[in-house]
Amino acid sequence: MLMDRYASTLSNLISPHDQYFPYPKFEDRDQWESLPESLRQMWISKGNDSLAFCWPSLKATDYLEYFKSGQVMLYEEKQRERKRMLAILVLAECMEGKGRFLDQIINGIWCICEESTWVIPPHQVISKRSAKDRLPDIEDPFIDLCAGETASLLATTHYLLKHSLDHVSENICSRIRIELKRRIMDPFLERNDLWWMGLETNRKMNNWNPWINSNLLSVFLLLEQENERRFQAVGKVIQCLDRFIEDCHSDGGCDEGPVYWGRAGGSLFDCLELLYQASDGRINLFNEPLIREMGSYLYKAHIDDSYYVNFADSSARVEIEAQLVYLYGKRIHDQQLKDLACSAFRNHHSPISSGWLTMHRTIPSLFVNQEMQETLTQPPFVRDVWLNVIEFMAAREKSGSSQGLYLAAKGGHNGESHNHNDVGHFVVYNNGSPFLIDIGVETYTAKTFSPQRYQIWTMQSAYHNVPMVNGVQQQAGNEFAATEVHYSQADDDHLAQLSMNIASAYPESAGIESWRRTCSFSRQKDAWIVIEDDFRLQNPTDDIRIHLMTPCVPQLEEVGTILLSDHLGNAIRLDYNSRDVVAAKELIVLKDERLRAVWGNSLYRITLKSLVPTRSAKWSIVLTKV
Asked: What secondary structure, in 3-state letters, does 150-190 show?
């Protein structure tokens, strides 16, 4: 898409280095001082807190610890803390304009430039020379997510503060340029083999592609003065982005989940915005239906408050980067996306809510804070959603409100990016509160993205709201998929329904001939949700289980009925046929901090198990408000 339209004319479209001014520099005091005083003081205060910061040591043994224990964050947290502190100090200096933070900024630059590698241990596997070694080879620079973020931060610091830094020593900015050229710019131009580029592989692209490319595009636009290299780099970026765009779903759905939208669709927006600004609007994809659909995905997956439908490696609670979402909504003229962003901004605003402080996002966001604060809107609360490619449906009781029942369900396959084995899975909320849930994912370890991924319980179908037959769970891979998928939504009878055959999501050893799951939501005077399983097995068995995950304590006192209630007074009644199945509950104590932050100390798994050997049957559970 980008290559076809713009590759041959890039030299006429992209601004030369000496004409590219995407943000006000430190010397542009009028623009920095035009920001709301409260915003400026907030960043200055954070800078004050950072004046005594002791830059943490990054030891070789910290790097090696990942390979010993599988702990992902020991090295990465220290490295990321350095970058966050540098970003805060740079912004504080630009806000205040007095030079008080400059010494610490120089310390941060020097520390980061002296790091042996900007690549974190789990990504060592993409090195050519060091893949089998546990410490990086400094003569084999390659680029991962963290190296890209580091590069963009240093390039932006150079752009904003070069005059001030040169006044202390010209070797500071010179060091930045040397390190970026050696570690990032030359390798990017010289290599085509890095998988996230998509240039020498048919592998499906994921968030790595636009995330890294957004940072590299920022680096070249801010620092590269040689026009030939500048245009070559931009051309290569758009070639890489085309590979990502080709792999995007036409319905705009993010199969990696809403947490990753910020670094998938959100990072693609970053790239397109940088290209738009660098070309004075002449490179423009914002009217493309795909780009608009990718933006709208976020409010289509929104349930209420910070709850989002969290299929794949996503948390049920997501603090979106509201200013990024707002800028996306403005650019594609989507009022609903802007409304979602403004609501999130008011309710959960934190200037550094993300784990990263990506400067080409953060700086533009500063200049829309006031506009967003003054916009009093609520989220769109879309009533019906159907994304036909990723096979995701959602329905709420009424449009424009989170009150009442909410249902989301998925078909798809088990070879998605950040996949969980969950074909036919669904979630149910009531008044914006979770009742039947997707657990999410634990803190990442070495096992998460290894061949042992599906040994982790949160990835397994037994801990999703799907059947298990003869003790056999769903398996991973594109071939384990829903078939005969049909969605319907009729306004006249207020019914939304998703039906699919999920038999192919299981291996032959499960003994399933057909398993048609139908998720129906009727919005009559008394709304109800029905999950119907119409199945036929190869042989009769009494080992048929329907699992349901919930954060509520199930009350099983009445045969055929389970009552679920939350601490807010919301409740759901779940009715099942006690002649066919028996209900049981299992307490699951949560030890992982990432899960505990969302669900508390424990969850429950409800099991509806067959009472007698059965070959074919039609089972239903009915959910109503209490």
From this structure: HHHHHHHHHHHHHHHHHHHCHHHHHHHHHHHHHHHHHHHHH
Q: Which residues touch 182 (CB under 8 Å, ≥6 apart)?
A: 141
Q: Where are the domains of the chain?
A: 1-20+236-379, 35-191, 384-625
Tokens of 284: 């423009």
CA distance 485 to 92: 53
Rounded Cα–Cα distance for residues 112 and 92 (Å): 19
**Residue 458 near residue 440 (C-beta atoms within 8 A):** yes
What's the CA gap between 52 and 297, in Å, rounded? 42
pLDDT digits (tens, 9 = 90+) for 367-376: 999 999 888 8
Task: Tell me the pLDDT tens digit for each residue of 203-228.
Answer: 999 999 999 999 999 999 999 999 99
Q: How far apart are CA 174 and CA 320, in angstroms?
A: 36
Tokens of 491: 């306004």
d(CA 266, CA 318): 14
Residue 311, SS3 per DSSP: coil
**Percentage helix, strand, coil, to 5, in the chain?**
40, 20, 35
The CA-atom distances, in angstroms, between 549 and each of 174, 377, 416, 453, 594 are 56, 33, 22, 20, 17
Query: What local confidence, expressed as pLDDT, does residue 134 receive?
Result: 86
Amino acid in position 91: L
Which one of 2.40.50.100, 2.70.98.70, 2.60.40.420, 2.115.10.20 gives the CATH number of domain 384-625? Answer: 2.70.98.70
